[in-house]
Structures are given as structure tokens and as C-alpha cells.
Amino acid sequence: MYIGRFIVVAPGIGAYRVSSRSFPNRQITDRSGTLTVGPTADAPETDNPYVSYNCLRSVEDSAVIGNGSHVDPIAEKLKLGYPARDALAEALLALDYEKDDYDTPRIAGVVGSETYIGTVRNDALLVRSVSEPTIVATYERDSPDAFALDAETAEEAARTVYDLEFEHPVCAVGVTTGTEIETAIVNSD
User: Fold this and answer.
1) In this protein, which residues make up the domain named Inosine monophosphate cyclohydrolase-like (predicted)?
2) To the nearest 10°, the Cα dihedral for 149, 153, 155, 157?
């Protein structure tokens, strides 16, 4: 089954996976603690604004993960002291779903002292508090729903979501929060 890009968050841990049929030549790089999705060296050129973006940013004791340019304003709002729920809701609502051929939802999560997951689709804005592992994806699973995530470290979270049987894996990140924020990246071979 193809569910597109997806995130799984739980208190203290989260992961994001890029799955793509159209732009598989991407990887995640660490740019001084900000994790960025971008084209590989052999990727064909594109002017698609949804191919490159920050997918993980840390803010104090929290991490923001998501599938697009909305990660940055969520992180900025957290820096300003917004509660996680409000930062997610305001940024998702302001940027709205992606105006591409599929009306792709934007998905995001905040993992930290407050843990939330959210999505904005062409028909809804959904932001939920998370107390157990919860998934939201751009297709098929586009409403937050309980999901088993058997991982304790950032590396395990990234590897677990990368290896899930959903179609077209490209790359993944994992994050844990607590006394410090730890991240891990899995790029395709």
C-alpha cells in the first residue's frame, strides 16, 4: 500500500519517512542539527517547491517533524513560547494543504514535553494530543490513528519506519527527546 510520506509520534520519540513515486532521488542531510530533505547528486532537476525542505528542527526540549516548509514556522512559534498544539494548528492552517495535483496534506508532529500530531487536508485541520504512538500520512491514513512503534532510540525509530512495508521508501529520520535530543537518519542505499 502506498501512503506517501508519514510520521509516527509518541511521548519522547518520533519518526518521519519520505516515500515517493515521483521524486525518489532524495536524501536527508544534517545541517547543524536541522535535518533537511533534498535531491541526491544524481537527481533530475526540478522546480517543484515540495521536493526540498527541513523535515526536523529542534527547539529547546522538543523536536518538530513534518513533510514540508511548515516545519520552520512551527519551530519558530515554539521558540516564541506558543504551546505545541497552537504552534501546529496555526502553521498548518496558515500554509494549508499543498496545492499540487493531489492536494497533498501537510503533516507534522511535536515531540517533547508536549506531544502532538497534526494534518491539514483540503477538507480538515486535525491536531491531536498524543499519549501513545500515533501515525498520520499524506495518503490513505490521513487522519491521526494509533500505530505500533517498537523503538526506543532515534536510530531504531528511523530504521523501523524506513523498513515498514508501505511502498516506495526513500529516507527516514528518527528523534528522541528527554535530557537531550538525539536524531538519526536512514537514507536509501
Assistant:
1) 2-177
2) 10
